[in-house]
Specification:
binds S-adenosylmethionine; 8-stranded mixed sheet; 14 strands
Length: about 325
């Protein structure tokens, strides 16, 4: 067994494919058709998300990385070395590498729904950090996270970067954060990246990159459904649309039907009028204060906030409220 293999555990708790089936049929049957954003992430979707992060317009990734780098020492002091660091929706685990270099946790637990992508990332981490236990699990974090293994008697800290919290409706965000509060327990903490409210032109540009990668990412959802549910969506029949809904404080991403058409999904036929949309993602933006209110409702106390000079993005640290 290689050295890396001794440090790596992998648990496949991937949701049943009937969850996808039920979610999609239910979402497409609503007056405003919608599909949960977690279904963007097949292996190709995960790669496309990484490519979005490299575009000029998509400021969140580079801004959050810069905040982490600029405040690394202080952040690591908050987290405490030798902890168990749990990252739901870990993706490429690129950001956590900054922390792993400095923090040296006892265990790092990347959790993601994109199983093959997670496996290859976890192997890379175990190779590069042979002194850290890497325990990866394919899970759907929208349900309470029950991990089959947790090192005993160690402080747990959740790391949730990328402003993925914005993909939840605010009341769902409170439920999710409450699940994280339960996961990290009384002595634990939460380090979370939260995208901030700002000039809508910056937001609109970020979700409409001129390279068209966000459009490919959005349309790849249909490819995922064609493959997994035997659907017959015509990719050329839909356009990507993303805009900031100022009243709701969120970016909305939609697929717009270019013409009157039908698609069959798992044997069920759905009609799409010309111009009709499938709502594929929301990305809520918060002020620091608005987000702290949500986190308090979920059982966390604010401890520290770091932002970039332009106030585009925040990294916030919370501890479990007593
Ligand atoms: C926007 S990416 C962020 C990746 C990374 N955390 C970052 O900040 O760059 C979202 C990640 O969460 C994963 N994800 C999305 N929905 C999920 C769910 N319901 N359960 C588990 N993972 C999920 C995706 O596969 C993807 O890797």
């Amino acid at each position: 067994m290689s050295k890396a293999a001794t440090q790596l555990r992998f648990y496949d708790l991937e949701p049943e494919s009937n969850t996808l089936h039920d979610d999609v049929l239910d979402g497409l049957s609503q007056p405003q058709k919608h599909i949960p954003p977690k279904y963007f992430y097949d292996e190709h979707g995960s790669c496309l998300f990484e490519a979005i992060c490299e575009t000029d317009a998509y400021y969140p990734t580079r801004t959050e990385m810069a905040i982490l780098k600029d405040n690394l020492e202080e952040i690591c002091t908050c987290l405490g070395s030798d902890c168990v660091l749990v990252e739901p929706g870990s993706g490429s685990s690129r950001k956590v590498r900054l922390l792993l270099d400095e923090l040296e946790p006892h265990t790092y637990m990347p959790l993601d729904i994109s199983s093959d992508f997670l496996k290859s990332v976890a192997h890379g981490l175990a190779e590069d950090y042979p002194h850290i236990n890497v325990t990866a699990a394919c899970v759907d974090y929208t349900a309470p996270i029950a991990l089959p293994y947790f090192p005993e008697n160690r402080r747990r800290v959740a790391f949730f970067p990328g402003s993925s919290i914005g993909n939840f409706e605010p009341e769902e965000a409170v439920t999710f954060l409450g699940n994280l509060a339960d996961l990290v327990d009384d002595t634990g903490g939460l380090l979370i990246g939260v995208d901030l409210k700002k000039d809508p032109s910056i937001l609109n540009a970020a979700y409409n990159d001129k390279e068209g990668i966000t459009a490919q990412f959005n349309l790849n959802l249909l490819a995922h459904l064609n493959r997994e549910l035997g659907a017959n969506f015509d990719f050329d029949g839909f356009d990507h649309r993303a805009f900031y809904n100022e009243q709701k404080g969120r970016i909305e991403m939609h697929l717009i039907s270019k013409r009157d058409q039908w698609a069959t999904v798992a044997g069920h036929r759905f009609h799409f009028s010309a111009g009709e949309s499938i709502h594929t993602e929301s990305s809520y933006k918060y002020t620091v204060e608005e987000f702290q209110i949500l986190a308090r409702q979920a059982g966390f106390s604010p401890r520290k906030v770091w932002t970039d000079r332009d106030g585009l993005f925040s990294v916030q640290y919370f501890e479990h409220a007593d």
